[in-house]
């Protein structure tokens, strides 16, 4: 009964979303306040209904209702409660429901926090989000219904993929989706702006905090995914340029470009149509990512052709949303073009260069991810595009970003003197070079262009950013101690995080040591100054698996560093083997032991890693995330009521004659 | 998936007695160890969704690792080893796709895009700097002025 209610709620939600997508839009067009007023109640109702459906599915998992096909396919009676609940988004249908739930949450948040926006504008934004939701609900109801029954009920379910039976996988998808789907908000703002012709600095200011929050969640989601892959997949890597990873990384790159171009549009009213285009692109890449992951094209182009309903639906949906948005853009954007005078030496130029590199980086990831699919579909053979390709391209594309990033905040808006900029930059640059030089003996052994560039770049970003803080406080008027504005604090935190991240990546990639060895209990092995003593092997029973657990004593000199217990787990339901690595985490190094297979004579194959500074990779990402959140809570976004009044009057669209170049 | 159909056959041919995911290969020459580690990261495990030979648990990957190790010990060059694997399994095994007409767009596309967009950025910046001759419009956002008016930014 409850699954049917969930199904029914989903159908009602579709109807509500359709009303929410159409009525306020007409209302805004005809300036009919009553029609516009439908937007907010519709958004709240939609959230209630989708939440109901989501709870209904969770209930089916919690009570192990194996008459629901999706539940039977993704859980079984042995599964602990925690994983039964996270199994809701463990597979295709449930992930879509989560996607839709998060979209309704964002929509309700926009409805709640858009009181200061002009009524017509808010109505359009909420309506566009309603239209996006319609597509996803149709997709779910027609091709991927999570509430489908199997009568008679199965006695026992299959299993949740053991890879997903992990705390990291409980939180990673929701965080990632909150970020992904959050880009629907700037997208809806962009479409609303194009529809209304109200494309000005005020628009960028309204859209900015939403973008920042989404971007922060996406950053967290990607970092969690990377961390999960590191400890769960058992090969010690933190990023593999897998298409599924790329699917989340493309919107992140476009979103990073977007938060920087929004800065220019807000502060200077420049690059408006470019900011609109980026808002559309970031969400388009989110949708494309969902398409890539959900349609099955990644496993094989032929899988897509074999079961075309789902893939075809997403493809048509994608073309409708992106095609429609871009058509609207091509039609309306030229009318808002208004080049703003700027000299080459200005903050605007630096931010434009940021956008240049991030846009090309996003395009490169897109190219590398789709290329094998296209080549295969065209019958030109099968190729693989992997880490060597992406690593090479990113080293080239990100080096200028790292070099210029710390400098940009020192440069004034509009125009600046090259001499003044050089004068304020040489000290932090000299300090960064000095630090990198002083540390040289520490990294001399692994010296390469990559390492030198990475250490220098990381030091430069960190020193340049901290120096900026010092300068900011020194030049403030005396006797008036206040924190910096949140927007600026956020920028500082995020840039600092990039420095930490760069150092982490560089040092880990160069100095990680790994060794595959054959060990018998009682034997020891020495790696990177640590002695690993293989003590015992024993068998343990978990709630729904049996594990073989090794005990390793790691010591350095006479000190015990850690006791590590790597496991090999067997999940009998699906007869799958999982490697659970044991990790001794540290600020400057991780020690990682994973147990391989039993060899002859009681020996085991064992893989040992020593990974210096790997935590800095995720630490840097956390700083970036924190920066985004802090910046989103800048006071000026809460003082938009006055700005809204200013824009409430119908605004004449500027009829620029010169085309908008950027 | 069609290209995987030949796999069981190949496997039967290749499979040796023991298959384990973590194989204790040791080389006498440290240079060999380095080459081995670099090489096995460049090749795709053909049995897996998307993993390289270094990380893979699959039996085929273990056998290929052993073959690569043997070839390194017998002083075959990296290019010879790559050629051998490509001849047997096709370009699909290379994570670094070869530069050839069908991959020109892949390898040179990003560079071309970078050049074209750099030229665009250059044009935009130049055109906007020509507008500077006219008096600059003052920013009308008060708080922008308040936070950034000290021009130390």
Summarize the structure.
The complex is a heterodimer of chains A (662) and B (153). Chain A has 662 residues and is an alpha+beta fold. Chain A is built from 23 helices and ten strands.
What does this structure look like?
The complex is a heterodimer of chains A (662) and B (153). Chain A has 662 residues and is α+β, with helices and mostly antiparallel strands. Among the domains of chain A are: 405-511, no CATH class; 513-613. Helix content of chain A is 63%, strand content 11%. In chain A, a hairpin with a 5-residue loop joins strand 9 and strand 10 (604-612). Chain A starts with a helix and ends in a 14-residue tail after the last helix. Chain B folds into 2 domains: 2-93, Cytochrome C biogenesis protein (Helicase, Ruva Protein, domain 3); 101-148, no CATH class. In chain B, helix 2 (30-42) runs antiparallel to helix 3 (59-73). At the A-B interface, helix 11, helix 15, helix 16, strand 1 and strand 9 of A face helix 2, helix 5 and helix 6 of B.
Radius of gyration of chain A: 27 Å
Helix and strand composition category of chain B: mainly alpha
Largest interface: A-B, 81 and 66 residues
State the end-to-end distance of chain A: 56 Å
User: In one word, what is the shape of chain A?
Assistant: globular
The CATH class of the largest domain in chain B is: Mainly Alpha
- Strand segment count of chain B: 0
- Sheet with the most strands of chain B? none
Are there runs of chain B of 5+ residues with pLDDT below 50, and where? Answer: 1-21, 135-153
Unreliable runs of chain A: 641-662
The succession of helices and strands of chain B, N to C, reads HHHHHH
| Main sheet attributes: strand count, strand direction, barrel closure of chain A | 6 strands, antiparallel
The CATH superfamily title of the largest domain in chain B: Cytochrome C biogenesis protein
Put simply, the count of helices of chain A is: 23
What topology emerges from the helices and strands here?
The complex is a heterodimer of chains A (662) and B (153).
Chain A lengths: L1 H29 L2 H4 L2 H24 L6 H6 L6 H6 L5 H21 L6 H25 L23 H16 L1 H13 L4 H32 L10 H26 L3 H24 L5 H6 L1 H25 L14 H31 L9 H18 L13 H21 L1 H4 L5 H26 L11 H26 L1 E7 L4 E4 L2 E12 L4 E11 L2 E6 L2 E5 L4 E5 L1 E3 L4 E10 L5 E9 L2 H18 L2 H4 L1 H9 L14
Antiparallel strand pairs in A: 1-10, 2-3, 3-4, 4-5, 4-6, 6-7, 8-9, 9-10
Helix pairs in contact in A: 1-3, 1-7, 3-6, 6-7, 6-8, 7-9, 7-14, 8-10, 9-10, 9-12, 10-11, 10-21, 11-12, 11-15, 12-14, 15-16, 16-19, 17-19, 19-20, 20-21
Chain B lengths: L6 H8 L15 H13 L16 H15 L4 H12 L14 H27 L11 H7 L5
Helix pairs in contact in B: 2-3
């Amino acid at each position: 009964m409850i699954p049917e209610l969930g199904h029914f709620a989903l159908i009602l939600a579709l109807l509500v979303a359709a009303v929410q997508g159409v009525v306020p839009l007409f209302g805004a067009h005809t300036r009919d306040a009553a029609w516009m007023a439908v937007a907010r109640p519709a958004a709240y109702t939609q959230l209630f209904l989708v939440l109901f459906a989501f709870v209904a599915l969770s209930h089916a998992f919690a009570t192990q209702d194996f008459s629901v096909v999706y539940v039977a396919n993704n859980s079984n009676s042995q599964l602990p409660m925690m994983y039964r609940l996270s199994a809701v988004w463990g597979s295709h249908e449930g992930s879509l429901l989560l996607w839709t739930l998060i979209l309704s949450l964002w929509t309700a948040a926009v409805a709640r926090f858009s009181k200061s926006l002009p009524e017509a504008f808010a109505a359009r934004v909420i309506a566009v989000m309603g239209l996006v939701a319609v597509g996803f609900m149709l997709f779910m109801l027609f091709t991927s219904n999570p509430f489908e029954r199997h009568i008679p009920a199965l006695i026992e379910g299959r299993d949740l993929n053991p890879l997903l039976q992990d705390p990291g996988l409980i939180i990673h998808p929701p965080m990632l989706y909150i970020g992904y789907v959050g880009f629907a908000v700037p997208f809806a703002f962009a479409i609303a702006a194009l529809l209304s012709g109200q494309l000005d600095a005020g628009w960028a200011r309204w859209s900015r905090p939403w973008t920042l929050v989404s971007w922060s969640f996406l950053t967290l989601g990607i970092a969690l995914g990377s961390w999960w892959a590191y400890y769960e997949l058992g090969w010690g890597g933190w990023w593999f340029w897998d298409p599924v990873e790329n699917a989340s990384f493309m919107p992140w790159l476009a979103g990073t470009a977007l938060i920087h171009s929004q800065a220019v549009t807000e502060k200077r009213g420049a690059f408006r149509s470019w900011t609109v285009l980026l808002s559309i692109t970031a969400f388009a890449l989110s949708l494309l990512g969902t398409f890539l992951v959900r349609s099955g094209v990644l496993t094989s182009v032929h899988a897509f052709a074999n079961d075309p309903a789902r893939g075809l639906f997403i493809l048509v949906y994608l073309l409708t949303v992106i095609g429609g948005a871009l058509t609207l853009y091509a039609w309306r954007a030229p009318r808002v073009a208004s080049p703003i005078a700027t000299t080459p030496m200005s903050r605007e130029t630096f931010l434009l260069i940021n956008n240049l590199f991030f846009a090309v980086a996003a395009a490169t990831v897109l190219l590398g991810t789709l290329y094998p699919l296209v080549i295969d579909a065209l019958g030109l053979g099968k190729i693989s595009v992997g880490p060597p390709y992406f690593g090479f391209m990113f080293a080239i594309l990100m080096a200028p970003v790292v070099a210029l990033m710390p400098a940009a905040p020192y440069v004034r808006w509009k125009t600046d003197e090259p001499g003044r900029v050089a004068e304020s930059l040489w000290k932090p640059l000299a300090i960064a070079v000095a630090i990198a030089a002083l540390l040289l003996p520490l990294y001399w052994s692994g010296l390469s262009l990559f390492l030198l560039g990475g250490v220098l770049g990381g030091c430069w970003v960190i020193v340049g950013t901290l120096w900026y803080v010092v300068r900011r406080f020194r030049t403030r008027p005396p006797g008036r101690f206040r924190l910096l504005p949140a927007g600026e604090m956020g920028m500082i935190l995020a840039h600092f995080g990039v420095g930490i991240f760069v150092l982490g990546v560089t040092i880990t990639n160069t100095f990680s040591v790994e060794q595959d060895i054959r060990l018998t209990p009682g034997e020891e092995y020495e790696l990177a100054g640590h002695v690993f003593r293989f003590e015992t092997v024993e068998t343990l029973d978990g709630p729904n698996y049996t594990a073989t657990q090794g005990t390793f004593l790691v010591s350095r000199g006479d000190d015990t560093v850690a006791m590590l217990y790597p496991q090999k787990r067997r999940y009998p339901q699906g007869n799958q083997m999982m490697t659970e690595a044991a990790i001794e985490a540290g600020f400057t190094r991780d020690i990682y032991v994973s147990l391989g297979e039993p060899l002859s004579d009681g020996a085991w194959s064992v893989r040992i890693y020593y990974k210096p500074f790997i935590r800095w990779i995720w630490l840097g990402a956390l700083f970036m995330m924190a920066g985004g959140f802090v910046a989103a809570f800048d006071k000026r976004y809460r003082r938009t009521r006055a700005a809204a009044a200013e824009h409430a009057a119908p605004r004449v669209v500027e009829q620029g004659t010169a085309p908008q170049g950027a | 998936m069609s290209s995987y159909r030949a796999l069981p056959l190949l496997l039967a041919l290749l499979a040796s007695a023991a298959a384990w995911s973590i194989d204790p290969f040791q080389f006498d020459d440290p240079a060999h160890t380095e080459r081995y580690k670099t090489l096995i990261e460049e090749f795709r495990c053909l049995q897996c969704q998307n993993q390289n030979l270094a990380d893979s648990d699959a039996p085929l990957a273990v056998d290929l690792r052993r073959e690569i190790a043997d070839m390194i010990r017998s002083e075959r060059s990296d290019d010879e080893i790559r050629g051998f694997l490509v001849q047997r399994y096709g370009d699909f095994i290379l994570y670094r796709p070869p530069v050839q007409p069908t991959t020109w767009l892949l390898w040179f596309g990003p560079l071309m895009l970078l050049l074209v967009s750099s030229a665009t950025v250059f044009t935009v910046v130049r055109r906007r700097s020509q507008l500077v001759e006219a008096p600059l419009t003052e920013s009308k956002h008060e708080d922008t002025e308040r936070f950034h008016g000290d021009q130390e930014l």
